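Sample intake sheet
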Amino acid sequence: MNQIKKKMMIAMVGMLFATTACSSGSGTSASGETGEDGRYTVEIMLPAFSTEIPDDSSPIIQKMEEETNTNVDFSWVPNSSYPDKFNITLASGSLPSIIVAGPKQPSFVNAARSGAFWDLTPYLENYPNLSQMNETIKHNASIDGKSYGVYRSRTLGRMGVTVRSDWMENVGLDQPKTIDEFYELLKAFTNDDPDQNGQDDTYGLVMTKYGGPWDIMQVWFGAPNKWGENDEGKLMPTHTFPEYMDALNFFRKIYAEGLVNSDFAVRDPAIWTDDVVNGKGGVIVDVADQAQRIEEQLIEKNPENPGTVAVFQAPAGPEGQRSLPTSGYSSILAISKEKVKTEEELDKVLTFLDKLNNADMENLLTFGIEGVHYEDKGEFIVPTEDQTLLAETNGLNQLLMFITDNENETLNVEQTEVRKKVEAIQKANVDIVVPNPAEPFISDEYAKNGAQLDKIIEEARVKYIVGQIDEAQHQAELDRWMDSGGEAYISEINALSDEVENAQ
């Protein structure tokens, strides 16, 4: 099963809410030791998203411990205060066996480089599930090319194009397969009365001041994902490539022709979907699951005649279909050397994590126990409505990594046709995502000047799209980026890249 289905399962059982801290533990020995029952004990620090967290009497935790032959001592921390607690724990030197960590968080980076956590790179291939890590996600979650934890997988190929499909039918167009066809769709939605009300009151692409869709569409044109390799083999930022300007010229064209809302530079992202729901705009480029949210809003607004939506993969550009990926993970499970001192102990912890990637463990920690927390209806399951029982699953999904493809064995809830299409697209996107080769590198220069550098590029892009500056003036802004720390940033990224390559 792809990661989207698994994320949906988590959401459907209502695990994510505001929280307070609590802890539980059913181990019969201290963390890092093997008790009389023969089980190794691991202590795990996790963020909590609910005020009701399972304790050591939980039948789900007990079954997990039995199946993995491990005793687990949970330390739950409210998600809102988790970053502070993480830094305090790190500074104390008293780390648990496993801790949820943001691999790009400066305090974690410094600790990992200083040897506080195991570099798992040479060990992961020895475990049947952990060895199946997606290379792009593993690359993204690494530090200096090294894996200092096991990533918690999230949807990698999440992007899509959401379209008012009833409008497409009205203007006689099918799914846009190329950028040219995408342009024709925007033009028809603007000029051909797609809502058939006889008025000139619609347009194609809905945009806001959130620049993510521009980033998504740049990749369609062949521009790199943030960084790319030039002809000399040097890593360079995307705005230095000619394909970036090809994309910007397209954006400038659709803006000049009124195919995108003229107020996008100041429009609040909170009202992004309003024009689609209200029959003013026809297309949104964003995460594919935006289609499901829009469908729900259309039904709520007009249950009798809601209008319909469709969702598509990226249209093909000069280099074929290309999709901007997410990072593909939400934090990592890092293993401390302070608590897990030997390779023998490390093997026990990694064996435990490896077993959590089995389908039965994913089902258990997501839904609980059949006949208690849910009923199996064959193609899908129905969770209990007993909130007390559902609370027994709260937070346990934070342990799941979803590394392996257990599609034929993992449980699922009933889904709409749009949701099924979203999942199919996001699964297919994995084959066309464009990785960022500089993702593992932690830049000191960017830490100092990154906000300023990003602002120069973002403002120049918007000004060029709306026609406030010409190409020469835009290039002057890119030159200013270089002079404001960009050149040093490029040098540092390439030095880090060379260092990793030479170490391999």
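Comment: Residues 471-503 form the longest helix (33 residues). Confidence is low (pLDDT under 50) at residues 1-28.
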